[in-house]
Predict the 3D structure of the following.
Amino acid sequence: MKVLLIGSGGREAALAYRLRKSPLLKELNVFPGNGGFPDSELLPKNAMDLKKKDSVLEFVKKNAYDFVVVGPEDPLVDGITDWLSEAGIPCFGPSAYCAQLEGSKDFAKNLMKEFGVPTARSMTFSDYDSSLAYIEKEGVPIVVKADGLAAGKGVTVCMDESSAKNALKEIFLDGKFGKSGARVVIEEFMEGEEASIFALSDGERFLMFPAAQDHKRAFDGDRGPNTGGMGAYAPAPIVTPEVQKKVADTVFSPMLKGMREKGHPYKGLLYAGLMIDTKGNPRVVEFNVRFGDPETQALMLLLEDDLLQLMKDCVDGKLTRTELKIQKAFATVVVLAADGYPDSYKKNIELRLGKPKNGTEVFHAGTKLENGKVLSSGGRVLGITSIAEDLKTSVDHSYAYLKENPIPDTFYRKDIAGRAI
């Protein structure tokens, strides 16, 4: 199969790593890609405009792709799967209707309530004054979320009233998130431990990956602003087999059944961000409609199955196997970020990278190739990912690589997987 992979980050680097191992793959192209992809896979920067249906269809048809894999959420919310499906081109990713589970937190909350999926109590507002009055009535701690897509940065966990007021000010008065901040979802603060579980779905059946645990805050000890993710590991011990079953029965089953009964079967990858309480009961923090970043980097090292075949089975409605083939091991990804991230950050940092060893892979995220040099181009620059028989060894190998290959003007958290260890 000739496959087009859409996206440019660490997630796409990890998906490509696994797709290349598929016996079904004849040729892989990536758009727009990053500085870590081989030239032979990269397409010209002006190959197509992902926001324009005609541009996408013309390019995909002209180049006779057999299959399209969409990494990031924006094209899915815009409807790229619908465009390609109408043209008879198989595309891995949910429809625009289903993609609203990530595109609008209010949409997701309403469906969770309708289908009986456990989640935090919440209210949605479209103006500063009424949302502020609600926070003053409810008190803190409380969580403020921009309704639309915000690259993982639209959520503020407010432990005091001043941070809640500031979050509302940024969204409504400063317009920090543009149209994505036209509404806010304000929800109760949930106590517990977070975990992420991904499920592949063909619209009827689903297969769950092992649970991963992401680290959202920028700095050690879960301090600092929220980011797109500073590291992750899998499997996460907080999710026991009993918890995993509860997630299957109370989260994925009712959500996928509900979507199907509405006439919009969910085909693709559904990501459940969860809060697990002390009794092992999961509640949904958020849904994403694509592979998460950086959890995917760890999961792709653990996966032994043919990823391309799995994706094809989802699109074809033929996901008939009973479980995924997963290595009995642990994988950890530590994100190397540019100084200043997630706010204004340094760019064009030269990256001189040694060859990884000990089951370590270096997945490029925000990088570019210029005049034969690899330079940073984004806030999250690399994902140093290692697999080993035990969690601590996988963590140690990722940190060993970072220590052996110091890069100026960058930083990384030193406590990834610390709680689990």
Summary: The radius of gyration is 21 Å. The mean pLDDT is 96.
